[in-house]
Description:
By secondary structure, the chain is an alpha+beta fold. The protein has two domains: 3-80, Arc Repressor Mutant, subunit A (Orthogonal Bundle), CATH 1.10.10; 91-136, Dna Ligase, domain 1 (2-Layer Sandwich). The protein has helices spanning 3-13, 20-32, 38-45, 51-63, 133-136; strands spanning 36-37, 67-69, 77-80, 91-96, 102-109, 126-130. The strands form two sheets. Strands 1-3-2 form a three-stranded antiparallel sheet. A three-stranded mixed sheet has the order 5-4-6, with no helix packed on it. The mean pLDDT is 86.
Amino acid sequence: xxxxxxYHEILKESNLSATRFRINTLKEIDMAGRPxxxxxxxxxxxxxxxxxxxxxxxxxxxxxxxxxxxxxxxxGYFVMKYGKKxxxxxxxxxxxxxxxxxxxxxxxxxxxSKIPTGxxxxxxxxxxxxxxxxxSTKT
Length: 139
């Protein structure tokens, strides 16, 4: 099954219309291989992309559980939450302060299983900020 068909099926299973825009958005998020920002998505989807349309579709895909916004600070970095590349394990995210890209560092995991009884975790996020390897070599 090709990628377009897979995205089409994911959307249908979530009771969302499989529009070309949604399929292309899922493809870009899936192919990024790391959390991708709204601004990067705007660039990849092309100059004719309407910002409001993108925001609404991203919110709809999040609400449907297909993608996840992994940036609690609000910039909006998105990953697949559905399928083979699901972003499921709690792990460190590294934000490059130079290029503004967000990377998943799967080797550093967070364990919330030892949260004391009575504490109700609403969200959990591990974030490190600095410069990525590519940006570090530029200086």
